[in-house]
Design a protein that fits this description.
binds flavin-adenine dinucleotide, alpha+beta, 3 domains, 6 helices, 20 strands, TATA-Binding Protein, 7-stranded antiparallel sheet, 35% strand
Length: 361
């Protein structure tokens, strides 16, 4: 396979568990890890990453057939090694094939807007085209991080991967980043859509979508997040921001699936048709024009919908504002002690907090 090669030797003060943790991380990133010439080899896409301990150093060698694949693998190796050795924060410098142009990150796609339409008074669908969308076309990972250039017709610049595996952000203008759900994707036709709730509180995503015209570009990184797992009983919940993910999951559930989907919207005008198995009951909750900050409206309905007998398997998927998310998560984790693989929950937004600050407390 490989004609191009690059290597790094990372000096460590502590090596215990490093190889095992790297193996787990590479495997989690869809690499196949197997023994190779006394080292470990992670094979991913068109590249191979060999890693082993040499005394107190971690040696990594990346091989690939072309510079783009080499840089992508170098980026992955750098990120994984930096994460595993984060307590030591060692210097990571690559040798070999480090000259030349930076390449596009392997998980980044540039999208061009084709059209948009209103689905409800506050929900708008945006259809984009982009090349090479296969990695995003999976029911396992529904979300993508969208990179928004500033409004005003600036010729957008996108991040690149440098030859040390580092991301180089464009100079001159910042790219705002927010998470959105791929509502539908047709990789063969190079098309995908996002359904965007106009929350009316301002923000770069809302501003970009509001001003967007066919031909405008944004970038997408990912995919991430989780879809539904099969169970005897399903409980889905969320507000408008979760509707795209919920709609995708409902469409994909088997025809005999059982359960309930509870959706909070402002009023009846915000309800939209959702294809769903007949055994899944749809319940719409109307919060009215003023949103209570407690998150209780949706959370109380969700907690009341959990079957009393949890000896049959249940899977819970949902989110919404951070207050609802916390109430439901606490109940599932602390009161019901459901196993972790029985639910996938996200805070989709938090009152008074920008989407890129969601994880910060
Ligand atoms: C995994 C994931 C998937 C998501 N998928 C979608 C999707 O498919 N469609 C979609 O529309 N949204 C989706 N969201 C939510 C979206 O990322 C946030 O609403 C985001 O904050 C919007 O960015 P912004 O730039 O418009 O506003 P920001 O700059 O992030 O926030 C500005 C202000 O608006 C407020 N705000 C943000 N969202 C809301 C809201 N829904 N209601 C009321 N106030 C709000 C914030 O609290 C803040 O005060 C998703 C979020 C996550 C975490």
């Amino acid at each position: 396979m490989a004609e191009l090669r690059s290597r790094t030797r990372i000096s460590l003060s502590e090596t215990e568990g490093v190889i095992e943790e790297l193996t787990t991380l590479f495997t989690g990133h869809h690499a196949v890890v197997e023994p190779h010439d006394g080292a470990h080899r992670a094979r991913i896409d068109d590249a191979a990453i060999d890693f082993e301990l040499e005394g107190t150093a971690l040696s990594m060698v990346v091989e690939a057939a072309d510079p783009v694949a080499l840089n992508a693998a170098r980026h992955l190796a750098t990120s994984m090694a930096a994460f595993v050795t984060r307590a030591q924060a060692p210097a990571i410098a690559w040798e070999g094939m480090t000259e030349g142009a930076a390449t596009r990150p392997p998980d980044l796609r540039i999208l061009r807007l084709l059209s948009h339409e209103n689905l409800t008074p506050r929900m708008r669908r945006f259809v984009f085209t982009g090349e090479d969308l296969n990695r995003f076309d999976t029911p396992l990972h529904l979300h993508a991080r969208l990179l928004f250039p500033p409004p005003g017709g600036v010729d957008p610049q996108w991040p690149l991967l440098g030859a040390q595996g580092e991301v180089i952000w464009p100079r001159g203008h910042a790219l705002a980043q927010r998470l959105f759900t791929i509502r539908w994707i047709d990789a063969a036709r190079e098309r995908l859509a996002f359904d965007v709730f106009q929350h009316g509180q301002g923000g770069p995503a809302e501003a970009w979508f509001h001003a967007a015209r066919p031909g405008d570009q944004l970038a997408m990184v990912g995919p991430g997040g989780h879809g539904m797992r099969s169970a005897k009983s399903h409980l889905l919940f969320g507000d408008e921001t979760c509707l795209p993910g919920m709609a995708r999951i409902l469409e994909a559930l088997p025809a005999d699936a059982q359960g309930v989907a509870i959706i909070e919207v402002r009023d009846a005008a915000d309800q939209m048709p959702l294809a769903h198995p007949s055994g899944i009951l749809l319940r719409w909750l109307h919060r009215g024009s003023v949103r209570a900050p407690s998150g209780r409206l949706l959370a109380d309905a969700v907690l009341a919908a959990i079957p009393p007998d949890l000896s049959t398997s249940i899977f819970v998927w949902g989110g919404g504002d951070a207050a609802t998310y916390l109430l439901v998560r606490r109940h599932l984790r602390e009161t019901l002690r459901l196993p972790k693989d029985a639910y996938v929950l996200y805070p989709y937004w938090k009152a008074g907090r920008r989407g890129d600050q969601l994880g910060e407390e």
